Every structure is written in C-alpha cells, then in structure tokens.
Amino acid sequence: FNVPTPLNEPVKGYAPDSPERLELVKMLKELKRQERDIPMHIGGQEVRTGRRLPLHPPHDHQHVLAHFHEGDAGHVTQAIDAALAARPAWAALPWEHRAAIFLKAADLLAGPYRARLNAATMLGQSKNAFQAEIDAACELIDFFRFNVAFMQELYGQQPISSPGIWNRLEHRPLEGFVFALTPFNFTSIAGNLPTSAALMGNVVVWKPAYPQIYSAQVLMELFKEAGLPDGVINLIYVDGPVAGDVIFKHRDFAGIHFTGSTKVFQTIWQEIGQNISRYKSYPRIVGETGGKDFILAHPSAHAKAVATAITRGAFEYQGQKCSAASRVYLPSNLADEILGYVKEDLATVKMGDVEDFGNFVNAVITEVSFDKLARYIDGAHADPDAEVVAGGTYDKTKGYFVAPTVIVARDPKYVTMCDELFGPVVTVHVYDAEQFEATLDLVDGTSPYALTGAVFAQDRYAIDLASQRLVNAAGNFYINDKPTGAVVGQQPFGGARASGTNDKAGSILNLLRWVSPRAIKETF
Ligand code: NAD
After folding, report:
1. Of 193, 289, 451, 493, which is best to mutate to test ligand 1, by the most ligand atoms within 8 angstroms of its C-beta?
2. Which residue in 136, 142, 147 sits closest to 114, CA to CA?
3. How many CB atoms lie within 10 A of CB 464?
4. Secondary structure (3-state) at 420
5. Catalytic residue among 9, 70, 133, 288
6. What pTM, to 2 d.p., does this model score?
7. Which of the residues 96, 206, 239, 397 has the least number of beta carbons within 10 Å of its own beta carbon?
8. Cα 186 to ligand 1 centre (Å)
9. Rounded distance, CA 233 to CA 86, Å?
10. Contact, 504 vs 192, CB < 8 A?
11. pLDDT, tens digit, 9 for 90 and up, residues 472-490
12. Which residue's CA lies nearest to atom 34 of ligand 1?
C-alpha cells in the first residue's frame, strides 16, 4: 500500500465572477444569516452547557455570528475520559485506515468544505479571501496529505536485521492522551495540531483559542464526515488555565501540541514540570511560540524587492502571522528609496471588512490586541526618537482597525524593535551602509526569538556571511524573499530560542514526537 505522492494544493485566485468567488460570496451571506449555536464535541456527542457566549467578527464587533457553549473543569475531565475510552480501538486500528480518514478529509476540504471553512475563517478571524484560501484551504489540505506520506515514511524507517535475527521498530502511539492547544491566527494550525497527533494513533483533547471557535466548529464537522471515530478528537471550549489545571495534573497526560505565545508556553512548561512525578510517562512538549521576525537589507539589495517584502511580509493578515516581519534593518544608501516604495504601496492598499475583496487589510483580532497596538503607536508618536512615516491611525468604532504603520526608530533597541506586537506595525532602523557586519550582530542579539528572518542582497559574499552569522537567529531563513508564507513539504516550519521547540510542523520530525517506538528483537 503506497499513499499517493502529495502535491501542494493549488491556490485559487478568486477573480471577480470566478466560480470560487461566487460560491464564497454565497457562503458568506449564508453564514451571516444564521446565528449558529455552537456546542462542544465530547466523545462524539454535542455538549451544550447553557453558558452561551457570543462570537463577533473582529471587523464588525456589534454583529453576532454565533454563540458557543463554554464548559468548565468537569467538561475537561469528560473530554479526557472520552479520549481514553476511544484509545484502545484507535491505537489498534491499522495505520492505513487512519491514513484513509485524513486523505478523505483533504479531499472534502479541497471540494465541498472549501468555501465553508474559508468563509468561517474570514468572518471569525477577519481574514480576507486570499489569506483564508492559503491558510484554511491550501495549507490544511497540505498538512493532511503530506503528514500521511510522512507517516508512511516514518513507519518504513526500520533497523537492520541479520541472518537469524529480525529487528524491528513499532511506532506506538503515546500511552495516554495528547492536549492540542491552538492559536487564533491560523485555521490550518488549529486543524493540524490535533490531527497530526491523531494520525499517529493518539487520542486528543483539543482546546482552540476563542476567536477561532467559529472555524473550529467547521473543522470538527469535516473530521466527522471524513470518518474520524467518536472520541478520537474531543473539542472543548474552556478557559485556558481552567483546562490546563485539569489536564496537567492528569496521570494519563502524554503530551502537548501547542502553538501560541511564548509567555503561555513557558507557564505551561512550568506547570508540567511541577506535576512531572504524577505522569505515567514523560510528556512530549511541542510548542511553536512567539517571534520578532526580521528583514535585513544589504547595501547591494534590490530596493523594490525589499519594499514588497515589507508590505506583504509585515501587513498581510494585519501582521498577525507568527512569521510576519516586524523589525527591518535598511542600509543608509537604500533606505529612502525602499521607504518611498513602501509608502507608495501602502497608499494604494485598502482597509475594511472581509466581504469587500479589494480590502488588503482587515481588523485585528480583539479589543485587547487593538488597545495594545494603539498604546505602542501613541508611544511612537510621542517619542522624539521615533518617527511614524506611514499609518499611525486606528479606529474601533465598527471593527478593530489599525492602519498599516511604519515607525522609523533611531535606536535599534527601540521598544517596538524588541517587543512582539502581533499587529500591522513594523519598525525600521536605518544603519550605516558601511556597518553591515555589525548590523548582523544587532539582528542576532536584539531579540530572544528565532522564528523567521529574511536577508536581501545581490552580493553573494554578503548572503553567505549573513547565512553563517545568523545561523541561530531564525528557524526559517529566507534569502531575497519575505519571511512569511512557508509551504508544507517545501519549507518545514518552526523556530528555535524563545520561538519554540522547532519540531517543524508538517514534517517527519513533528510526527516523531507523537510516537513512542518499541524496538523488538526476534531470534529464529
Ligand atoms: P495565546 O498564547 O494567547 O493562546 C494560545 C492558546 O493557549 C489559546 O487556546 C489560549 O486560550 C490558550 N491559553 C492561554 N493562556 C493559557 C494558560 N495559562 N493555560 C492554558 N492555556 C492557555 O496565543 P494567540 O494569541 O492565540 O496566538 C498568537 C501567538 O501565537 C503569537 O505569540 C504568535 O507568535 C504565536 N504563534 C506562533 C506560531 C509559530 O509557529 N511559532 C504560529 C502561530 C502563532
């Protein structure tokens, strides 16, 4: 049995009057008309708690999209029990059947579910159609298909045997349950974290970030239709610390698959450490966390290419990609030209809701995020050492809108060069074009993070020097390209240092974390 060789799902263009545009517009209207009641899913049952909380589109915060049922600690225990009850049958199921479920999920998402998951992502997370397409559709389809192929490859990795001795590795699932704790910003990540563990035979309790619940619900329907048995993935809507308190004290807690902020991950790691003697096995701790991603231009860089990388790399999805460029180092010989192009670009981009396909920028995710960004922008306006050269405005009357903002900071350690803002704000430092080498040290030493980074140069020696000196500064390193847009199977994704455990989502390395191999020696 050979699984199909995966190919990346082609991105649809959504040109005016294209069939995909018409279908998506229809779906957006349909979803907006309904006011859905969203239950949790535990052991295959829909669980309604009576504690109903509203979900609003970030670009239209007075509109109620849906209500979801929030659970409490008791529901977390129920979800763990349901997962453990499903475990024996799921772990014993031959892997080909697990592969078939997720290959079917990929096909359903490429076909009938595409418009619905994209529309839910657009409305719930304020992502425009193009950003939703590369996330909720293409990337998640790729995760399913490539992970199945990686699973087969992993199972095929067997030790050598000799006459009279047969050695083999049995890639058992972890003994217990896996906790998938997912962020708001990518539907594909929210979909990948529970399913990659489940694919390897594990049972899962999944808690999404609240702003992603609207699309999480569609994902759960997709898994069910693809044939995922009850109890393998249990979806709960419970406050993070409440869920963590039950899960991290549980004897059968076998691992966490996390994506989110560094602070939360560190808190979780501490909690796991405090409870370490309770567990049957040492839990797998896999986390992709924050970033302060850079673009560094060498004096030989192509100015227009750098400008495009800034506009797209810093502002697509309102800068709320973990990989988004947020600190930029420009050489004095090119800075004016590059910033001129960026300003020209930004003068043409439109900001607004997701239903107008011409809007490049939509709303930031929550009021908390909006207020945080507004504080940093106000700080830059008031600081004589910083100059706001584009954007710098915000308005939350209808939605949480923050204009794409470019700050030029004299001090390379200016606060917005260091803190993760997670929004459409990029800070530029102009360095003396003679000081490229010293700037490499600055790039490497300014931030505790090491997620993504990009270097622009036409000079080969400069590219080589930057690659060597920034060897630990980014888990995903780009040469003459923006630091966002990693593609499954092409650029396995993940960062080191404070950016995560670097287990590369969508790779064999990641799947290895969800198995506990048993080495078997048999003599004849
Ligand atoms: P977050 O850390 O606020 O939340 C992530 C998840 O943890 C959510 O489900 C949340 O409810 C839960 N949570 C929060 N506090 C908790 C606690 N004390 N105990 C248990 N659970 C808790 O992150 P977010 O705002 O949803 O996402 C944005 C962050 O994610 C950014 O920092 C971004 O850089 C990071 N991110 C990283 C990557 C990557 O691949 N490195 C990818 C996407 C996002």
Report:
1. 289
2. 136
3. 12
4. coil
5. 288
6. 0.98
7. 397
8. 11
9. 9
10. no
11. 999 999 999 999 999 999 9
12. 290
Please name the amino acid found at residue 9: E
Residues 6+ apart with CB under 8 A from 111: none
Query: What sign does the CA torsion over 216, 219, 221, 227 have?
Result: negative
**404: how many CB neighbours lie within 10 A of its CB?**
25
> CA-to-CA distance for 516 and 175, rounded, in angstroms?
8
508/512 Cα distance (integer angstroms):
6
ipTM given for this complex = 0.97
The position carrying tokens 């459409």 is 424
* β-strand pairing of 253-259 with 425-431: unpaired
393-414 tens-digit pLDDT: 999 999 999 999 999 999 999 9
Q: Is the pLDDT of residue 21 over 90?
A: yes
| Ligand 1 surroundings by CB, under 6 angstroms | 181-186, 189, 207-209, 240-241, 244, 259-261, 264, 267-268, 288-291, 322, 420, 422, 451, 495, 499-500
Task: Share the mean pLDDT of the chain.
Answer: 98
Q: Tell me the per-residue pLDDT of 415-467, one tens digit each, with 9 for 90 and over.
A: 999 999 999 999 999 999 999 999 999 999 999 999 999 999 999 999 999 99
Cβ–Cβ under 8 Å, residues 65 and 132:
no
216 CA to centre of ligand 1 in angstroms: 15
> What SS3 class is residue 118?
helix
Q: Residue 124 corresponds to which amino acid?
A: G
Residue nearest to atom 40 of ligand 1 (CA): 288
Q: Let me know if 337 is a catalytic residue.
A: no
